[in-house]
Amino acid sequence: MGYWISQFVQVLIGYIFLMYLWPSVVFRKKLYGKSLTFRFAFCTTVSILLVNTMVLALGLLHILKAGVVFVIFYGIFAISVLKKKELRTGFLAQIRTFFSGTLGWKTLLLRLIDTVKNIGTVSLKWLNRKTKGKKIEYSVLAVLIIFGVIYFSYGAFQCHSYGWGDMYVHHAWIYGLKEGNIFSEGVYPEAMHCFVYCMNVMFGIPVYSCLLFLGEIHASAFLVAVYCLFREVMKSKYTVYFILAAFLTVDVVCVDEIYGISRLQYTIPQEFGLYTQFLCVMYLIRFMRKKQDSKEKRDDLFLFMMSLAASLAIHFYVTIMAFFLCGSFAVFGITKIFQKKNFGRLLAAVIAGVIISTMPMVLAFVSGTPLQGSLNWGMNIINGTDTKEGRTQVAQSITDESNMEEAAQNLIDNNGETQQNQLQMSSDGDAAGQNGNAVQVQKKVSLQERLKKIIDDVKLVYKYGYAQLYGSSRAVWLLRFTLIALVLGVLNTIVSFIRFRKVPFEMYWGITFASVVFMVLYAAPFLGLPEIIAGARLCLTEQVLLLAMMAIPVDQLLFLLGKTKAGSLAPYVSVLGVAAIYAGTNYFGVFHGYLYYELTRYNSAVELTNSIIDEYPQYMYTIISTTEEMYQAIESGRHEELLDFYYKSKQEQYYIPTEYLFFYVEKEPIYYAQYHFFSGPSWLAQSKYTKYYEYSNAVLSQGDDIKNEKISEKLVGEPLAVIGKASDAYSNIKNRQIIESEINDWCMNFKSCFPNEMKTYYEDENFVCYVIKQNPDRLYDLSN
Question: Any residues with CB less than 8 A from the CB of 606 and at least 6 apart, and which?
Answer without folding.
Answer: 160, 161, 632
